[in-house]
Amino acid sequence: MAIGITRVAKKLFIKTYGCQMNIYDSARMADVLAPLGYVSSGTPDDADMVILNTCHIREKASEKVYSELGRLRRLKEARPTSADPMVIAVAGCVAQAEGEEILRRAPYVDIVLGPQTYHRLPEMVALATRASDRRNGRGRGVLDTEFPVSNKFDHLPGESAPQGVSAFLSVQEGCDKFCTFCVVPYTRGAEFSRPVAQILEEAKRLVDQGTREITLLGQNVNAYHGLDEGGCEAGLAQLMWRLSEIEGLARIRYTTSHPRDMDEELIDAHGELDKLMPYLHLPVQSGSDRVLAAMNRRHTAAVYHDTIAALRRARPDIALSSDFIVGFPGESDADFEATLALVRDVRFAQAYSFKYSVRPGTPAGTMEDQIPDPVKNERLAALQEILQQQQNAFNASTVGQTVPVLFERAGRHADQLVGRSPYNQAVHVTAPGKLLGALAMVRIDSCLAHSLGGVLTDSVGSAFGRPAVEVAEGAGV
Ligand code: 5AD
Ligand code: SF4
């Protein structure tokens, strides 16, 4: 369909919930709407279009979206009748899961679109704002929650807004793992990997715009198997080797990975690929084989341990992060103890932990032996206590080290910049503004609750994250 392009600036406000994938998608939605004259705005108050880019992973996600929609309705209705009505769109995983129900419960919503169809947003906006329909009060909501054959990544505009020093790049989407607690396979659909050439092109564009660090994104990113220029499948390690050839790109990271897909090539890359940072988020969820089986995780605690050991052989200073769920249906005290034992053995630099909560439509939701909330609370507190101790110990272990820091933004104080260590820690440093976007060696000299402090040094070190000072293995608690 041909779409009339208007250059009159209209204000676009996107509220993003959830993961980095959604942050990436929101930026792409802004890109596809830019040719229609939409310019990002920091507030919904006077916006011409508001998009809620929703996430279904947290508890009561849908209810939170409906209450936000209630607030937007009041804004929409308060607009002067002389002005064009505010366009309200619901995107992302809640839109995918709820579909038509959103238009039924919130008829003032104009557009409902799933995560796979945002490239069709201009068409949807045109349909939703057709003047004649609106004048006649017939503004029907537009629903598009298909998993289309034609891929959204093929329709991204050649131009995109700069993303800054550190940027996300989506390389893989969807998941075929079907963990029994998780909605992702239903909301994001089957696993899909973008072709290598398309990713390289986007990466080069980002680097041209000033990006120095790229985090490759995917719900199951290490299952990446995109086609290369010769039509052969490339794994994530191969993709990262190709990306590392881009001059000006200093750092590569990737998230989120599944233990089953940590193949040898990828583990080796952690030892050999200088631009790949020594930090890995590798969710384990539980340390009990019985619970892991009920979760359909397809790995045991021993497999996880072996993978960590191999990673540490390849890159001894690698910092590890994970996700945990406590109170999964049927989890006994002994199962939970097994989780604590795994945590003590592995020693994480950082972690996220959650109480299990039912996601409608997922197998675990109807399992017997749901765990009472007070038990979940107790387990979560015990787990978080040890994870916090480990995080503190890891941060403390970096004090005294000199590490390369990539400066990403200005700090709160004058002459202060904030950057990231190779281990993904925020580091606050007194440094001139001209170092924004640059790598510099920093001696870490203090450790605060959520960040580190450091001073610039003129010591020579690899810009790519090998420690100038040897790191003691682990930071045991
Ligand atoms: N209950 C609690 N936590 C969950 N997660 C995913 N689904 C659920 C659920 N039903 C957590 C997992 C996952 C992270 C993104 O969210 O730990 O790795
Ligand atoms: Fe969900 Fe991750 Fe399991 Fe896929 S691998 S089903 S995204 S928890």
Description:
It is a single chain. Helix 1 links the parallel strand 1 (10-16) and strand 2. With 477 residues, this protein is α/β, with parallel strands linked by helices. The longest helix has 26 residues, at 373-398. The chain folds into four domains: 10-144, Methylthiotransferase, N-terminal domain (Rossmann fold, 3-Layer(aba) Sandwich); 162-277, Transcription Regulator spoIIAA; 290-397, Transcription Regulator spoIIAA; 398-456, OB fold (Dihydrolipoamide Acetyltransferase, E2P). Helix 9 (236-244) runs parallel beside helix 10 (264-272) and helix 13 (333-346) runs parallel beside helix 14 (373-398). The protein contains 14 helices and 21 strands. The chain binds 5'-deoxyadenosine (5AD) and iron/sulfur cluster (SF4). 5'-deoxyadenosine binds next to strand 15.
Q: Which helices and strands appear, and what pairs or packs with what?
A:
Blueprint: E1 10-16, H1 20-33, E2 38-40, E3 49-54, H2 61-78, E4 87-91, H3 92-98, H4 100-105, E5 111-113, H5 121-128, H6 131-135, E6 142-144, E7 166-170, E8 172-173, H7 184-187, E9 192-193, H8 196-208, E10 213-217, E11 225-227, E12 233-235, H9 236-244, E13 251-255, H10 264-272, E14 279-281, H11 289-294, H12 301-314, E15 319-326, H13 333-346, E16 350-355, H14 373-398, E17 402-410, E18 416-420, E19 426-430, E20 439-447, E21 452-456
Parallel strand pairs: 1-2, 1-3, 3-4, 4-5, 5-6, 7-10, 10-13, 14-15, 15-16, 19-21
Antiparallel strand pairs: 8-9, 11-12, 17-18, 17-20, 18-19, 20-21
